[in-house]
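During the no-cost extension, the postdoctoral fellow (Dr. R.K.) reprocessed legacy sequence entries with the updated structure-token encoder. One reprocessed record is reproduced below for audit purposes.
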Amino acid sequence: MKENIAELKLEIDTLHREIDSLQGKIETLSQKRSSFQVNVSFPRDNTPEVLAEFRKKNTEEAAKWQVEIQEINQSLKASEAQLNHKKTTLEEKKSRLQWLELQQQVYEGGRNLQEQVQKVNEKANQLEAEIQTLKQIYQQFNPLYCEWVQNQVKIVKFKAKTIPYVYIKDNGFELDNKEIK
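Re-encoded structure tokens follow.
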């Protein structure tokens, strides 16, 4: 079986057209069989020779009719077998296509999830770096400010001890907190 989704879709479309064609053929053959006629012309003369000829023609026509009906039945049987095979193949390919599309969605979803985890962690690392910068500025500025106001104060209180961070675990990811250094 093909592993390419586009090729599989093309095969499925082709099978749909083939199935439609076979169903049309079966319908035509069924109509032909059910509307089959034998024309019988009764003789005007009832002489033994004419009646014998009449019976002979009827027997020949019935034999031809029997052969034609058998041919139609054989064609119907072969077409129905082909149709059933195509339907089975179609269902298998549809199932395979659904599986491949699901597999592709899972792959893309996993890739998107990993990209987002990376973005979250990059932002967390940037935030941590900005907090460190804030602490450095505070450590330089606060003594000057205290000297200026002539009082010991803390103009920035650092209560937050953690930031959100995504950790990779055995069975996936875990959004948790990372301690600020």
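The first helix runs from residue 5 to 34. The mean pLDDT is 90. The remaining legacy entries will be reprocessed before the final report is submitted.
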